[in-house]
């Protein structure tokens, strides 16, 4: 198996941090590199824009700047500089953006946390599926879903 480039979607949650920790092990074993992607959900940005009474473009710009700062802090907090080749902040529907970037970059693996900052068991996930499930359905490359706490030593 050739594993040289891993895409890791992050939402800055503990579960995403656990995924990065797991990726460190894979990068050592396979001499691989990682690209971290954070997707700003357009639907949520629209709600924020309406609430703040500002244009969507202004909200988008503000959220992108905040995401870049959060990405740098996330990498530092998780001691991930050595494995991260690049970072991407994207805007749109998370599962679609992750899938598009994975195809564009021709990644060998997508590594995702089992649930993100919005938690688990939300009504929308019960009816519409999680981001992880949607990504798995769309991509021909392997998707490794690492549930939070999996693989930790007791």
List keywords for this structure.
Rossmann fold; 154 residues; 6 helices; alpha/beta; globular
Summarize the structure.
The chain contains 6 helices and 5 strands. It is an alpha/beta fold. The chain has a single domain, classed as HUPs (Rossmann fold), CATH 3.40.50.
Task: Provide a descriptive summary of the structure in words.
- A five-stranded parallel sheet has the order 3-2-1-4-5, sandwiched between helices.
- The chain has 154 residues and is an alpha/beta fold.
- It has a single domain, classed as 3-Layer(aba) Sandwich (Rossmann fold), CATH 3.40.50.
- The protein is globular.
- The chain has six helices and five strands; from the N terminus they run E-H-E-H-H-E-H-E-H-H-E.
Shape: globular
Give helix % range: 40-55%
What would you report as the Rg, rounded to the nearest angstrom? 15 Å
- Write down the domain tally: 1
Q: How many angstroms does the end-to-end distance come to? A: 30 Å
Mean pLDDT: 84
User: In this structure, how is the largest beta sheet organized?
Assistant: 5 strands, parallel
Give the low-confidence spans.
Answer: 116-129
* Spatial order of the strands forming the largest sheet: 3-2-1-4-5
**Text of the CATH class:** Alpha Beta
- How much of the sequence lies in strands comes to 15-25%
InterPro entries: Rossmann-like_a/b/a_fold, Universal_stress_UspA, UspA
Protein name: Universal stress protein UspA
Family: Belongs to the universal stress protein A family.
Domain UspA: 6-147
Draw up the topology in text.
Elements: E1 5-9, H1 14-30, E2 33-41, H2 42-52, H3 56-77, E3 84-92, H4 94-105, E4 109-113, H5 123-128, H6 131-138, E5 143-146
Helix pairs in contact: 2-3, 4-6
Protein name: Universal stress protein UspA
Family: Belongs to the universal stress protein A family.
InterPro entries: Rossmann-like_a/b/a_fold (IPR014729), Universal_stress_UspA (IPR006015), UspA (IPR006016)
């Amino acid at each position: 198996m050739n594993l040289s480039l891993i895409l890791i979607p992050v939402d800055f949650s503990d579960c995403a941090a656990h995924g990065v920790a797991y990726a460190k092990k894979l990068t050592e074993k396979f001499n691989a590199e990682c690209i971290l992607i954070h997707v700003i959900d357009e639907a949520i940005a629209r709600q924020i824009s309406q609430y703040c009474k500002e244009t969507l473009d202004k909200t988008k710009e503000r959220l992108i700047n905040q995401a870049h700062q959060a990405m740098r802090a996330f990498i530092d907090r998780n001691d991930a500089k050595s494995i991260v080749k690049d970072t991407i902040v994207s805007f749109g529907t998370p599962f679609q953006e992750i899938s598009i970037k994975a195809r564009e970059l021709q990644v060998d693996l997508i590594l995702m946390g089992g649930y993100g900052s919005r938690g688990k068991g939300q009504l929308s996930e019960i009816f519409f599926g999680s981001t992880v499930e949607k990504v798995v359905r769309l991509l021909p490359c392997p998707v490794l879903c690492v549930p939070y706490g999996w693989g930790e030593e007791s």
